[in-house]
Amino acid sequence: KEILEKYHDLFTLQWEGVIGSMCAPSQAEWEQLLTNCSAFLFYGMERFMSHVLLNWLVAMNIPKCRLVILLDLVRSQQSYQRITNSDIHKSCLRIALERPTETAMLLSLTGVGSVIAMQWYSTFQENAERLETLMESLLSFGKTTGQTVHNLQK
What's the pLDDT score for residue 90? Predict the structure, then answer.
């Protein structure tokens, strides 16, 4: 919330979404958010693709979304239990499609212009620092996504 408030006046007048533990978005809400945005930010627990239906995502056409930022892959005891219970009902192939590279490919196939995604598990604190760097580079300094990712790699 602090980061959103800090950058509220910089290109974010039309930000909308679900914040905090208000509720888990329905598939219809995910679709509405992705199809009506020019940039999409997911900052949450476990794998982004564990929250959306694969069949629903691959059928989407979202070319208006130029950038997806996935700050996922954060694990807690509760999220690990949820994902374990969910994964029991999935095939190995389905679980493989939820990995970062595969997720980026699927989003690209739906029309997303750029995807910035985590490659390994992290903590909320580390992702908060990444989000701060991303917002500062993209919104305050007007850097490209490539320049921004380069800054994150340093």
Answer: 93
